[in-house]
Design goal:
The longest helix has 22 residues. This protein has 397 residues and is α+β, with helices and mostly antiparallel strands. About 3% of the residues have low confidence. The strands form seven sheets. A four-stranded mixed β-sheet has the order 6-1-12-11. Strands 14-15-13-16 form a four-stranded antiparallel β-sheet, with helices on one face. A three-stranded antiparallel β-sheet has the order 17-18-19, sandwiched between helices. α3 packs antiparallel against α4 and α9 runs antiparallel to α10.
Length: 397
């Protein structure tokens, strides 16, 4: 399975994604033919190698024939025509793209359109806006969809999106970062944002929509090998290099058995708050599992058995954490083997937004369940009880 990892430590935009995928080896000649078949004029492309803060990267630049210097949003200038989603759909449908590329491009555009409709408080069919109607957005999104299809990518994982602070100039004036549409797309798509010290916009609505539509989760399940890396150059200058790095990876065979270490100690001299704090520190230290069991200790005192599972290489670190944050004077340990199912993280769509699900596979045995953190984010964004999100995810599963 061809798997892609988007490393968004300097944000993500449409042109950065297009550039990174071309750097990864997507067919540039085939892309130009596909873009020409859309029948959209009024622009030219400048593509090629560049260097960004000492890193060799690829640059993808849509240059409009007539720029408006007063409207400069998301790294590009936008045309005056206010196309709606129906107009964009017609353009994509007439293009010579594979059905898969068309479907992906339309899905990305719909995410942006839904966000703009919510921000402006209008029905989807009544929204006319620069961001989706502009030529550069069409070219960026179609290029990303073409490249994903051309490279044969079957699954994509995406890191949390780094975002800046301050204000950004959009078609409707100055807006706080993240831009309103970007924030809506991130919320609906269950994307994680992390605010950095950088001044300015690092995540555009187009970039957020691409990440939301493609991502199957933030972490690649299990070990992997990097086959090839691509760098897409952004148009801004930050303290950090304005680059989107993408890795084409190969998942290594999942081991059905591994070795873990179990650490145990009896406790009768800690409050509930102290026990809870100790558990948090153990999770932070890399424990695989932590739990408490009520026990009866000597002199009939009620107590707690602390049990911790950890990788063998973490034994000393976790033992030190137990001794540091509990009242025990000693820790018992034993190694054991365990049978484990192969685990995969994917997404299902629900009326409230996408939800990550965990799939366990071992031979013909399969288990699927919704991931709590993802369901929690979706429930908060949709302002509904989490049990409704779980139920909707189970229906999709």
């Amino acid at each position: 399975m061809k798997t892609l990892y988007l490393e968004c430590n300097s944000g993500i935009s449409g042109d950065m994604t297009a550039a990174a995928l071309l750097d990864l080896g997507a067919d540039q000649k085939g892309l130009y033919q596909a873009l020409e078949s859309l029948g959209v004029d009024g622009y030219r492309l400048e593509c090629g190698r560049t260097v960004k803060q000492g890193i060799r990267a690829y640059d993808f630049n849509v240059i409009l024939d007539s720029d408006d210097p007063h409207i400069h949003s998301h790294g590009h200038s936008h045309e005056h025509s206010h196309r709606n989603l129906a107009d964009v759909t017609e353009i994509i449908q007439r293009g010579k793209l594979t059905p898969q590329a068309k479907e992906l491009a339309l899905a990305i555009f719909k995410r942006v359109a839904l966000a703009e409709a919510k921000v402006h408080g209008k029905p989807l069919e009544e929204v006319h806006f620069h961001e989706v109607g502009a030529i550069d957005s069409i070219i960026d999104i179609v290029t990303a969809a073409f490249c994903i299809d051309n490279l044969g990518i079957e699954k994509v994982y995406c890191s949390p999106l780094s975002e800046g602070t301050g204000m950004v100039r959009c078609a409707h004036g100055l807006m706080p970062v993240p831009a309103p549409a970007t924030a809506e797309i991130a919320a609906a798509g269950g994307l994680s944002l992390q605010i950095t010290e950088e001044q300015g916009e690092m995540v555009t609505p187009t970039g957020a929509a691409i990440a939301a539509e493609l991502s199957h989760g933030e972490k690649i399940p299990g070990p992997f090998r990097i086959l090839k890396t691509g760098y897409g150059a952004g148009k801004k200058e930050f303290i950090r290099a304005n680059l989107l790095r993408v890795h084409l990876v190969e998942l290594e065979d999942w081991k059905t058995e591994d070795t873990v270490c179990e650490l145990l100690c009896n406790l009768d001299n800690m409050t509930g708050e102290q026990l809870g704090f100790a558990m948090e520190r153990l999770w932070d230290a890399g424990a695989l599992d932590v739990w408490f069991t009520s026990i009866q200790m000597k002199k009939n005192r009620p107590g707690v058995l602390l049990s911790v599972l950890c990788p063998p290489e973490k034994t000393e670190e976790i033992t030190d954490c137990i001794l540091r944050h509990t009242g025990t004077l000693g820790v018992r340990r034993r190694e054991m083997t365990r049978k484990i199912m192969k685990r995969e993280i994917s997404q299902v769509g629900t009326p409230y937004g996408p939800v990550e699900v965990k799939r366990g596979i071992l031979g013909d045995l399969k288990k699927v369940s919704a991931e709590y953190e993802s369901a929690r984010r979706t429930a908060i964004a949709a302002d509904v009880p989490i049990k409704k999100v779980y139920h909707a995810a189970e229906q999709e599963i």
